[in-house]
Design brief:
single chain; Rossmann fold; Helicase, Ruva Protein, domain 3; 5-stranded parallel beta sheet; two-stranded antiparallel sheet; 8% strand; globular; binds adenosine-5'-triphosphate; binds magnesium ion; ATP-binding; coiled coil; ATP hydrolysis activity; ATP binding
């Protein structure tokens, strides 16, 4: 098989493999297939691998020079901005057919990156030389700096800890255990400290486990890769394990990444209770994959989540695996006020007392608060349709909605109370115990 065919196959099986796209680009360039080379380098840039960004820009520059008449001077804009050199800025190659379209695209790219304010730069050809030969449709091209994340992620600004109301203890624990070693590995390297394993978030439903995992990825400027059990499990023997291995290798290929394994109770179902041997094989595969990760070199974090920590296989809780379990409790008063603020943002509202709303929603989860806001909004819309008179959402609507709902976390807290009482070996559930001690009614 030709080298190009092998590389094509690699990019087909994993379109996020920046190295494969880059090598493919080199092969095409070496054989004079400039159009294909350009497309391959563009794909490589889209994968947003900071380690390769500079090389790819260099190759694109060479490609551009190769297409210019020998006399055409390279303009100063060809220099790579500091952000790109540092591997921070993503660069997107854009094909244009005319000047008007080019400006549109530049504006669009600038819009997409306005949070970053990364300067737009281009490998511009002098007017006469702006048509690249050999590209079929004679299209000039330019390189525009983009945002930090991949093209698909750019549509939404990443969530960070600033978007998460309260949960200070959880944020601190995540900072110490995984963000610090991830963003400043130097100290850990000097002490030969292996940084690996992950954290396991547990708590009642709707309290922000998925949300804070997403925010962790935002904090580390890493790609968020959520995995649900349905993505992994397959009735055919060996396929689930294969799926799992592929998930890990894709996370490695897309580093830096935060791999979020949801429903850990179902994935790592307590071995003694698991009925089939195939599930045990899957558990072993997952354990091997987790142990194989060294955050220093892999730039990859693992966050697991579950509502039923007592059903998670104890093997996952040993050092080097999910050796830190963090309780994501129902939001406290301050966090509830923040969540109300977020959920009511951009809706027509009148004189909202967030502190009072927070006071009246003790033990409500973030999802419960979202539900309160939705119910109140539905009522207002129904009334407007009935009367034909438009009005904003008021405190009264929200209070009515609160009165018609119950916090959904109570059942979970009652269940965990028994585990705290009878199965708190090694102080596994101390945080829950401290939380419960403040609520006599549970
Ligand atoms: N602390 C918080 N700050 C801001 N928003 C929150 C917070 N906690 C929850 N939310 C909001 O509540 C919603 C539900 O949270 P999330 O999906 O993260 O819950 P979960 O703990 O993962 O639930 P489950 O156990 O059912 O998976 C989110 O969409 C988020 O907007
Ligand atoms: Mg979740």
């Amino acid at each position: 098989m030709e080298k190009i065919d092998v590389l094509l196959q690699m990019t087909k099986s994993n379109p996020e493999n920046a190295s494969a796209w880059y090598l493919l680009g080199l092969e095409y360039a070496a054989t004079g297939k400039n159009n294909e080379a350009l497309q391959a380098f563009t794909e490589a840039l889209r994968c947003n691998d900071p380690a390769l960004t500079q090389q790819i820009i260099g190759e694109l520059g060479k490609l551009s020079l190769a297409q210019s008449p020998a006399s055409a001077p390279v303009q100063s804009e060809t220099s790579v901005p500091a952000e790109a050199a540092a591997g921070k800025a993503e660069v997107v190659a854009v094909y244009q057919t005319n000047d008007a379209e080019r400006h549109e695209a530049v504006d669009e790219a600038a819009d997409e990156t306005k949070a970053e304010k990364v300067p737009v730069f281009a490998i511009n050809q002098p007017k006469a030389a702006s048509h690249i030969q050999g590209l079929g449709s004679e299209r000039p091209f330019q390189v525009i700096s983009g945002g930090q994340a991949g093209k698909r992620d750019r549509a939404e600004t990443p969530i960070t800890f600033a978007d998460v109301g309260g949960l200070h203890a959880v944020k601190n624990a995540i900072h110490m255990k995984i963000i610090k070693p991830f963003v400043s590995p130097g100290l850990f390297e000097r002490f030969r400290k292996k940084v690996g394993g992950g954290i396991l978030l547990y708590g009642p439903p709707g309290c922000g486990k998925t949300f804070i995992a997403k925010a962790t990825a935002g904090e580390c400027r890493a790609r968020f890769i959520p995995i649900h059990i349905s993505d992994i499990l397959d009735p055919y023997i060996g396929v689930s394990e294969q799926n799992l291995r592929e998930v890990f290798s894709s996370a490695r290929a897309n580093k830096p990444s935060v791999l979020f394994l949801d429903e850990m109770d179902a994935l790592g179902y307590n071995r003694s209770r698991s009925a089939t041997s195939s599930m045990r094989t899957l558990i072993d595969t997952l354990l091997t994959e987790i142990e194989g990760i060294d955050t220093n070199t892999d730039k990859m974090l693992i966050i697991g989540a579950t509502n039923m920590p007592w059903d998670v296989d104890p093997a996952f809780k040993r050092p080097g695996r999910f050796d830190k379990m963090i309780f994501v409790s129902p939001p406290d008063e301050e966090a509830r006020a923040t969540i109300f603020r977020i959920k009511l943002h951009e809706r027509p509202i009148e004189q909202i007392d967030y502190a009072l709303l927070a006071k009246e929603t003790d033990l409500y989860s973030g999802a419960d608060i979202e539900n309160v806001v939705e119910l109140a909004t539905e009522e207002v819309i129904a009334e407007i349709m009935r009367t034909g008179v438009e009005r904003p959402l008021t405190m009264k609507d929200l209070k009515n909605a609160i009165q018609s709902t119950q916090p959904s976390t109570i059942d979970w807290l009652r269940t965990v109370k028994n585990y705290v009482k009878y199965a708190n070996q090694g102080g596994l559930y101390n945080d829950v115990e401290a939380f419960l001690s403040r609520y006599k009614r549970i």
